[in-house]
Protein 1
Amino acid sequence: MTLRDILAERPAARPKIPAAIESLRTVFGERIVTGEDVRRAHAHTTTYIPNQAPDAVIFAECEAEVQRIVGICAANETPIIPFGVGSSLEGHVNAPQGGISIDLSRMDRVLAVHAEDLDCVVEPGVTREALNAHLRDTGLFFPIDPGANASLGGMAATRASGTNAVRYGTMRDNVIALNAVMADGRLIRTARRAKKTSAGYDLTRLLVGSEGTLGVITSLTLKLYGIPEQILSGVCPFPSVRDAVNTVIQTVQTGIPVARIELLDAQSMQAANAYAKLDLKPQPSLFVEFHGSPASVAEQAEMFGILAAENGAGALEASNRAEERSRLWKARHDMYWASMQLRPGSRAIATDVCVPVSRLADCIGETQEDLQASGLIGPIIGHVGDGNFHVTLLLDMDAANEIEAAEAFLTRLAERAVAMDGTCTGEHGVGQGKRGYLHGELGAAVEVMQAVKTALDPHGIMNPGKIFLT
Amino acid sequence: MTLRDILAERPAARPKIPAAIESLRTVFGERIVTGEDVRRAHAHTTTYIPNQAPDAVIFAECEAEVQRIVGICAANETPIIPFGVGSSLEGHVNAPQGGISIDLSRMDRVLAVHAEDLDCVVEPGVTREALNAHLRDTGLFFPIDPGANASLGGMAATRASGTNAVRYGTMRDNVIALNAVMADGRLIRTARRAKKTSAGYDLTRLLVGSEGTLGVITSLTLKLYGIPEQILSGVCPFPSVRDAVNTVIQTVQTGIPVARIELLDAQSMQAANAYAKLDLKPQPSLFVEFHGSPASVAEQAEMFGILAAENGAGALEASNRAEERSRLWKARHDMYWASMQLRPGSRAIATDVCVPVSRLADCIGETQEDLQASGLIGPIIGHVGDGNFHVTLLLDMDAANEIEAAEAFLTRLAERAVAMDGTCTGEHGVGQGKRGYLHGELGAAVEVMQAVKTALDPHGIMNPGKIFLT
């Protein structure tokens, strides 16, 4: 979808929105807000996708309130847009048909920690950092780390993952059960707390990644893990992206249980050096991390070092000291900001695709050539253990031809990934931005998704204008 | 559901079944079979649930044929029951409304092995043993092992798991994508081959565990793993079930990446000794297996040994020799047959429940007391790392009061598991037998499942009479 496409959409008329707002005000008083600043802050703000503000924002404080809000909106065929912290990247929190943004950030309680079962129950507004702070004294942690301090409800809704999915999986793998309020106001619990179940359809996984289009998540039961006895992190420079990717393939295939394995291309390394005041080699590099017992971590690092050397790598510079590790991963996590410094004054659009790892070097190579031919600046970083990578395009929003070139590039990138049997999005979700690619990737399966959507939300009030082209 | 309930059901009339058979015969000739022996062999045969034969069995040889068959059945509102090898335990392959059993065992080709990507593509009739035989020279394997040499399509349909799910997950975690023919004859592919995706609803996970009620699986893309450099298996006797379970909790929490950890109660150990001519201590025991490098395996076994000893265990008798390991796991896998020898001439019904592991010792303890109070024989074995266990009831089918006692026991067992925040089935599925427990476990979520079912199969032709009470 180009900017123009999104702005030109003519969505369904929603005449009863004012009536919904009036009813909500009767119940919630000052907790429903219609001021422009608050409304705009609850629409999309993180990329160059336009800001489409809702008609009102309501701050929910508990599950029963969410149920009440959805009930009122349903009675008035008024769109509902769930909002966590607004860190999503594909326009998920925009309100192209107007409606009510439900801000869930006040639902931020950790409801239970079951240490023996390695699980916890949280409200959707708990952020991943807040959860890990809460867990600090238990010896447990929640690993999924998309970079931003996202809300766990939002992470489930977009099927988020990030740097350590290669070891711990994505939100798909780490949500045991959900509570959700469906479009008709019905509250459901998708599963009980057993680690596995064969009892009926997997509604947990149906809601994870549904981007708020089927229901509003009101609590999450999540898997936890013991904090590893030892953690070793390091950086390793390679002659080329292909050499780095070959090392990744061999690492995974050898069964080294690497916890993180991240690629930064040469341009990203330059940006990281400048932004984080580091002195790393400006070559394609892998940032790696190993978790386990001291003996296991040492063995993993040694085996990785051998594979890397066989692929022409420089020495692995590694440390198990917490401050060194933090410095390294902060540099990685700050890549969005570091990249923007490559072109001061630009706006960034961070996109993601994911391919089978055997095609990753080809996909990145062709993408780099495409960037060069298009005259675009776009450093590349990737969760390469999963075949997932990001291009962060840095754009001058006043140059119409540059926006046009960028949009053509994004379409080619999505099509390239799909042609390699991959996906137009590995972890950001479809939102508004990638709706145009979904049919090319999944064909008739999209119609099955739409049949499910229509069955569960016949009036199209749950986050309309996302995932599917209207 | 009692036997009587299942037999007393009055399902929808299906007057056009003869027309469907006639149409199918025109296209498939002798590959549609209506002889009683073949029909009965394609209905339920593995427990005491009644055999409800289909009207005909058709042997499909490729995806296009499945599409043709479903199209003809859809046009005649004729039930379709997918059939792999018939090893399911809850009546999934029965035909309570008559109709056509699609035997997929001739669709047994491994279509691709992508060693670099650690995945493969198979037809649904490939069994797990056949796949692993095919992979023998690649250094890779497919780990999920429900005991029986089940078909991979059937394993996906019931969301199967088994002994090493504690390390490798269940079918939920190991299916990357599916091809499926839906109720209207439409062929879909649920995802591409990338390791992760955020592109739309997770139709892969919606079909995994749907027990043939939404579509017929026609191919599966599965995750593979490198065969571990070393495998060490062993047995360890404990003073009590609770001591064994506490050791399991501590093992998982310490982060020991145990590959299998199976509980056998004292009665099961006696049965195993008698059947497999072993000389193991007749105490509650854990069968364990460790995978990894030699150093890692040694470390895992040592750490496990320390935890076990702290819980009063006898010595861990372990071996990394292939024949010793095979003998041990064969004894475990043969428990169904070994248990039946505890009462020659009996019929067995193997049930499963799954609870949070913190409640496992309570759940097993109360279940053992219940068995004793009910005068029933039911050895217990379990995939205890997941909180999942089986009771194999050994019944005299001529004793009506015993059947009645067994059915009351099964209901109490399911309710006990649910009351402990667990599930009435961890891996066998709902089928016919557990439909009565689903609403008690999941409440309004069952109505959401039914809305999905109705949207995707409005005439109820896909494996009717399973999962949901009609």
Protein 2
Amino acid sequence: MNKDYQSLIHSWMNENRVVGIELLQKLVRNRSIQTNEYEAQQVIINHLQKLDLEIDEWEVTGDIFTHPYFCSTRKSFLKSPNVVGVKRGIGKGKSIILNGHIDVVPEGDVTQWTDDPYSGKIEGGRMYGRGTTDMKGGTVSLLLAIQALKELGIQLNGDVIFQSVIEEESGGAGTLGTLLRGYKADAAIIPEPTNMKIFPRQQGSMWFRLTVKGRSAHGGTRYEGVSAIEKSMVVIQELQNLEKARNARIVDPLYENTPIPIPINLGVIKGGDWPSSVADEVIIEGRIGVAPDEEMRHAQEELRLCLKNLENIDRWFREKPVGLDWFGARWVPGTIDEDHPLMGILQSKFEQVKQTDPKIEASPWGTDGGLLEKLGGIPVIVFGPGTTEIAHFPNEYIELERMFEVAEIIALTLIEWCGVNR
Amino acid sequence: MNKDYQSLIHSWMNENRVVGIELLQKLVRNRSIQTNEYEAQQVIINHLQKLDLEIDEWEVTGDIFTHPYFCSTRKSFLKSPNVVGVKRGIGKGKSIILNGHIDVVPEGDVTQWTDDPYSGKIEGGRMYGRGTTDMKGGTVSLLLAIQALKELGIQLNGDVIFQSVIEEESGGAGTLGTLLRGYKADAAIIPEPTNMKIFPRQQGSMWFRLTVKGRSAHGGTRYEGVSAIEKSMVVIQELQNLEKARNARIVDPLYENTPIPIPINLGVIKGGDWPSSVADEVIIEGRIGVAPDEEMRHAQEELRLCLKNLENIDRWFREKPVGLDWFGARWVPGTIDEDHPLMGILQSKFEQVKQTDPKIEASPWGTDGGLLEKLGGIPVIVFGPGTTEIAHFPNEYIELERMFEVAEIIALTLIEWCGVNR
């Protein structure tokens, strides 16, 4: 039975390379950064219409702004719709959510790109452009899987709920909106760029901003001041120690190939405004990883205590404690039982298609999966084409073959998870 | 003889408090930051006219732009005149240059000022405002000294060359301009804010910009990148070691009360642009102090070698050497023989007026004195009212009494240095 479906779907994918490539190119050429998602969502809707799905397009609003899981700087989502397309099953099957985000991070410094960041140029089996890997490629895999089943006349028992959400890159208000609108399922797959590894665990993360104080003085008499730059070095060292301590506690074998399972990354530093003055303030911005089974609050408390402990290392911090501000984005961690049936199905379909065992790891970053699990009670697996290394960077690309392989694996997974009547 | 002059001048100063205060207030209320010096220079010229000086007002131009000592980002000094006023002696006396700069550094963050930064408000014996201490107060001391001699009918043998120059805060193009225009003298006094200490040595300094490279990665997999922020910590530590080594060589007793005679100050740091990305570049800007008897080139070479040596500490720097750029301002160091006659005269006049010994130290910062000495061959002493601690900072002020005391000491010094026929 499986063998038949596999060869059918494999052939369909081979015959529909152009469909997938054209769809991805259309999506990539729409610069769907935050607040600019509208046109790309219309591309999605146009495609969903061809697949005979029940389409739901709406702007997130209302109670969401006061929801405890809400995290966004936006005051309105006007013209930034969420899109859901439902393929109803014929009954008595398990349902599944297939979730992808339409928002992309900005292209950054254009001069670092070889081509236009939204070119969708194809070269050497790769398509280039912001969002190819994170994660319009994964979204196309989902749509190809659904389309293959439709065109091959394979009717599922359970419902397939395809979601194209906004705001994943900025705190998950889009996926939160789908939950508040009532979308639930027995499980979910999110094809974020895992490089085709299977992630039953998802790390959470939070952004923070530290304010390190000094005292100004003329650089020629710098001993009369206190350098916020020098004090920052003490702060950074303590954060490195905290990172070590937090990671030493991680014993999950899924992290055994990960050098630092839950990193503390310091991404931005800025301070001082004159070369020959002593800097009186340095701002450091970073992200702290949250273990899949850890409460966000616990990670916050550990960072707070680490900064508090600076007072025992350097008396200066008693006078001027380091300021701590949780700002910007936040991703809730998530986890699915490794024995969950969907895990077994996805692994076996991977083996069928790839003729090798899948790698099973824990994700080094957050996704909307944490929200689906923690708030919606929906078990989530993250599995998709594309790779983290090139997400968010210039010359982002995706290996097109991986996108079709993932589509094939997901189509086969849907057949087994949702069930079919032959 | 001295006793007579002293009481005459002391009385004149007492009777002319209002003259000095009004003049300083007028100067402070003109925001003479770089490129905006014109109006403040007109205040100077108006005052010089009352003193019957030969006035020379000109805009620096021509050969100066290619002069080896030229240091400025400006391409033109149009509407930024230098002003010199010469009081010719009646002959056979030694000449002197009295040099003050009219430019002030910008006021910075206005919210940190209690009053308008250009208020010239008087409270508790202090006048507040940008430029009061650095160094319009010192300039007023010079003008009061000249005015006292004139109004008391004291005719000097040697010439007094008063200079109100532009660009001291940005590399000395104004004073360089006076030298190129031919102004020379047997000695010079610059009343920068020494808190009435006598500085026969002047530290030089230069600004530098370091570019520390990293390699970007997602913060969740930060071990795949190289953090330019972490590498900066290595660089900063080596610069601290260089500062220690350079200062360990300073044996001049004039520095014995100075914790760090020639500091390396790191004043600005900025790097990275996203909290959850690994920073791929950090820029550090600072100043390196140059010892009074050191060649600028020697200090530059030591810094270059220090950065080169990073390659032996961390292999990363072989791949990505730290970039070094000498930019912005530069002050040439200077020194006068401690046995120079002007040193003796100034000390004895200080003792007469203050009834205590002056403190003799080496300056912790650069002035235009280095140019006068190195290029003009003119021995220079730096001695003035005001204090470094508040120069360049919010709520800059000057103790008005100190301004009048310095005026008195300089007037008496002129009488003895330039000579009088009774």
